[in-house]
Amino acid sequence: MDTQTRSKWWVGMAAALWGIVWLVGIPLIVCTSFVSTASAAGVADTAGAPAQGMLASVAGFLTQPVMLTLLLFIGLAGVVIELLVPGLIFPGLLGVCAFILYFFASTLEGLAGPYVWLLFAAGIILMALEVFIPSFGILGLLGGASLIGGVIMAAWATGHALQTLGIAFVLAAAAVGIVVFVFKERGIWNRFILKDSLTSEAGYNSATTRYDLVGRDGVSLTPLRPSGTVMIDGERIDVVSEGAFIERDKAITIVKAEGGRVVVQEKWHSGLGPIEPI
To answer: Is 250 left (phi over 0), alpha (psi -120 to 50) or beta?
Structure first.
């Protein structure tokens, strides 16, 4: 299985798993949540009241507009930075933790159910797969859609979620731009860019330049119109003529050598015409 076929296979498997999550996982978790809620209805538990009060305070603090924007900013910036500059690790972990706090606070407030966590997990997994599997952005788009869908569904109002996401996105774009500029040598785009300079100074030569031939005389073995073959001290050399064509058995002088290209001129006596070979 070649690389392209293997990549398509992985993309297909990931898309299939994502579909299974939507079609089977979400209804199953929602049904389980309803069953658990129904079985626990009417049962009083006063022993956990202090802990519940503390959790409610934490949830109230985290669901303030400023905190929600901050969490989304950190989450978006961290995940995108990790995707564009893989290997930093810390931004990715920080971004995932910020998203966990966002969904945790929404869950405590009763705004998010298990299906939101499922969307969050699917989004992170798909975006992580995008780093290792060349899917031309398909996995990244699916992961981003799942993540944003989870964020919107975990908010108390769609309009408020979009406004918060918009502010966080602008801030995250600025942060990502700065980090990408600083770590531009480690960016994922370097996998698709040839960075080596194919110059002779770097040791890359398509053909050896015969500088030792320049100035030497010889005889044309074939007509040079303009390319042909000459004999230089018993060595046959492919050349091109500069200027007029040169007939066979004419005296020539090599005037230039550039890579595998050797340029010759017909040799002349001053005012006496071309020299005939001896």
So the answer is: beta
